[in-house]
Backbone:
């Protein structure tokens, strides 16, 4: 029973990264996405197929955490939330800056505006995440 529990707990400790480079002891370097590391092995998606390597075969692993998608989602979500909140708080009424007169903001017009600004915000966040997501060494075999 203890052996089964120790095996399950070792498999449960998995580190996951969006992108990865695996440097093998035979001199090959492989690059792919969806890198997953356990205490015993490394799995990486290369060309749509999972490749599994034992840690004894690996010299070094470098990874990117996938900040681009996460930053894009955060920026878009914030923008949509702020725009929707402001529209709801105003009661659907806007003020013309030139004349100072009130006008009704139609729901469909507001939804299109929110979607447009949300998309632009996603793009800005995605680019910011892409620029700041650098390769980092996550495993190094010193033996």
Residues:
């Amino acid at each position: 029973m203890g052996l089964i529990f120790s095996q399950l707990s070792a498999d449960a400790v998995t580190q996951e990264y969006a992108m990865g480079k695996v440097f093998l002891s035979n001199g090959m370097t492989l690059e792919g996405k969806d890198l997953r590391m356990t205490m015993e092995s490394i799995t990486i998606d290369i060309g749509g197929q999972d490749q599994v390597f034992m840690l004894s075969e690996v010299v070094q692993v470098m990874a990117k955490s996938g900040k681009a998608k996460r930053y894009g989602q955060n920026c878009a979500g914030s923008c949509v939330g702020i725009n929707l909140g402001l529209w709801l708080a105003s009661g659907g009424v806007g003020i013309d800056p030139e004349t100072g007169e009130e006008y009704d903001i139609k729901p469909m017009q507001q939804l299109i505006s929110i979607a447009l600004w949300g998309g632009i915000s996603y793009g800005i966040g995605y680019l910011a995440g892409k620029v700041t997501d650098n390769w980092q060494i996550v495993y190094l075999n010193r033996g």
About this structure: The first strand starts at residue 15 and ends at 24. The helical segments are 2-12, 67-89, 107-132. Residues 107-132 form the longest helix (26 residues).
